[in-house]
Amino acid sequence: MLRWLLVVVITLVVFNGLRPWLQKFGLGRLPGDLNFRLGGREWSLPIATTLLLSFLAMAVGELI
């Protein structure tokens, strides 16, 4: 369980760093991705995108 949580947190951090580049491809705007403004700052919780990227990484890992 801890390993899965660590993978999700690392994916969220990487996604937030690459968010401007990935939004050109439509990632980060999928149904299930939450974007909201709180305390004068824009927050993003890309739940659907994280799941999609995790499944893609798993598929690539299975092929290798």
TrEMBL record:
<keyword id="KW-0472">Membrane</keyword>
<dbReference type="InterPro" id="IPR021320">
    <property type="entry name" value="DUF2905"/>
</dbReference>
<dbReference type="Pfam" id="PF11146">
    <property type="entry name" value="DUF2905"/>
</dbReference>
<feature type="transmembrane region" description="Helical">
    <location>
        <begin position="44"/>
        <end position="63"/>
    </location>
</feature>
<keyword id="KW-1133">Transmembrane helix</keyword>
<keyword id="KW-0812">Transmembrane</keyword>
<protein>
    <submittedName>
        <fullName>Putative membrane protein</fullName>
    </submittedName>
</protein>
